[in-house]
Design a protein that fits this description.
With 473 residues, the chain is α+β, with helices and mostly antiparallel strands. It is 40% helix and 20% strand. It is elongated, with a radius of gyration of 30 Å. The protein binds zinc ion (ZN).
């Protein structure tokens, strides 16, 4: 009998507010250790936290964008535990009255992964292990987080990864986080259990803490799935525990027995007042939301009639998608715009960050002009490609790169004469072609392109030459 994988995810996302959740310290990543700190965020006695209302606003945005209900009344609680990354010995978080509840994210299959809740909390400091010593950097302490808790609805590694990627893209679109996994601004705790296919009850679960790479998440789930099945098939029992992924050995290892909720002795933080949000305020935030990625995806498919794969790549970067729309204005061939964007321009924007920021040195209407010149048959596709290359290098417009008189495509009659000449001048290539070496055609076309400074239509030239050679044969 086969086994079924059950996964639920707790995703911690750092919010990109300017200041921390309970003090005025900067949230900027990095910096010298312990320089983004003050008495409040290092938890000195006698200090008082004051809730940053932008954190609430960002979290409400995140809730609305993932179809959650927003609670008009919520509050902050203390979660007590002793660990050096948390000098107060408690974390301020939300326990039984979170800000958002009952949302979902839809996967490409149409399946909904339900979201139990989204709450706000403070991040802890970071332990740095160096040369046998442990140092503590509190710069991260007090950075605002949302924790997005999913239901155990995920049944495969692919679903887990798609859920995270969708969540990540939504947060990026609504601008509440930079969601850089490598910098830890999106981290997942993965809850895993297994059960026999057809069973209703969930098995005992383990939790793999603090994963910030999709690759590791995928490997950790795979390892843990097999580990649990082996224990059960050997007649053993799964320990409810917290584990961590060891990326060197590619295994999960036990960290500690899983704490029960009771162990944390949650209670309301007496230093912080109740959070009240009116329906009017929620509506106002709703109206500020941009078009969300899945809506844009459907619209692009409908409006631009492009393949799914192209649209997926274009909408992955919000600013790139906006650039594409500008470049498409009054163009007949949207697919050609997409090809230029996903080909040459994406090669130019080599890093994810450059794509995120859409660091294209020319404005979209330059690309629009270029495409229209191809459509008006003033330049060839190849000429456009070369011109775009120069535009990306220099930031100049089409007209500064090709002059009016160069914008003339060699007509078919002239091209035919040129092709005849090319065959006479390239005896060797002609012989090879006639002996079955198709590749030889390329050097003949190359000759024509050189003679015309690239103004010949290469496809048409190839057609004419094939015809001429067929005649000789
Ligand atoms: Zn501070």
């Amino acid at each position: 009998m086969s086994w079924e994988l059950i996964v639920g995810l707790e995703t911690h996302i750092e919010l990109s507010t300017n200041t921390k959740i309970f003090c005025q310290c900067t949230t900027e990543f990095g910096g010298k250790p312990n320089t983004h700190c003050c008495p409040v965020c290092i938890g000195l006695p006698g200090t008082l936290p004051k809730l940053n209302m932008n954190v609430v606003k960002y979290a409400v945005k995140a809730g609305l964008a993932t179809n959650c209900n927003i609670n008009n009344i919520s509050k902050m609680d203390r979660k007590n535990y002793m660990y050096p990354d948390l000098p107060k010995a408690y974390q301020i978080t939300q326990y039984d009255r979170p800000l958002c509840e009952g949302g979902y994210i839809t996967l490409s299959s149409g399946k909904k992964i339900n979201i139990t809740r989204i709450h706000i909390e403070e991040d802890a400091g970071k332990l740095v292990h160096e040369k046998g010593n442990i140092f503590i950097d509190y710069n991260r302490g007090g950075i605002p987080l949302i924790e997005v808790v999913s239901e155990p609805d995920i049944r495969s590694i692919d679903e887990a990864l798609e859920y995270i990627e969708n969540l990540r893209l939504i947060m990026k679109y609504i601008g509440v986080s930079d969601v850089k996994m490598q910098e830890g601004s999106l981290r997942c705790d993965v809850n895993i259990s297994v059960r026999k296919v057809g069973e209703k009850e969930f098995g005992t679960r383990t939790e793999i803490k603090n994963m910030n790479s999709l690759n590791f998440i995928s490997k950790a789930i795979d390892y843990e799935f097999k580990r649990q099945i082996k224990i059960l098939e050997d007649g053993g029992e799964i320990n409810q525990e917290t584990r961590k992924y060891n990326s060197d050995l590619k295994i999960t290892e036990s960290m500690r027995g899983k704490e029960d909720v009771d162990d944390y002795r949650y209670f309301r933080d007496p230093d912080l007042v109740t959070i009240l949000i009116s329906d009017g305020e929620i509506d106002r935030i709703k109206h500020e939301l941009p078009e969300l990625p899945h809506v844009k995806f459907q619209r692009f498919i409908k409006d631009y009639n492009l393949p799914y794969a192209d649209v997926e790549l274009l909408i992955k970067y919000k600013k790139v998608a906006e650039y594409f729309e500008e470049a498409c204005k009054n163009v007949g061939n949207n697919k050609m715009v997409a090809n230029f964007m996903l080909g040459q321009i994406f090669r130019y924007l080599s890093t994810e960050e450059e794509k995120d920021n859409c660091n294209i040195p020319i404005p979209p209407y330059y690309l629009n002009e270029l495409i229209k010149l191809i459509e008006k048959k003033k330049i060839t596709y190849n000429m456009a490609k070369n011109t775009l290359e120069k535009m990306l290098e220099t930031g100049e417009s089409v007209k500064n790169i090709i002059s009016e008189k160069d914008m003339v495509i060699i007509d078919e009659g002239a091209l035919k004469i040129l092709c005849e000449k090319a065959l006479l001048e390239n005896n060797e290539a002609v012989k090879s072609y006639l002996n079955g070496k198709e590749k030889a055609l390329k050097s003949i076309i190359g000759y024509i392109m050189k003679e015309t400074n690239g103004k010949a239509d290469a496809k048409l030239a190839s057609k004419i030459i094939k015809k001429l050679l067929a005649g000789i044969n």
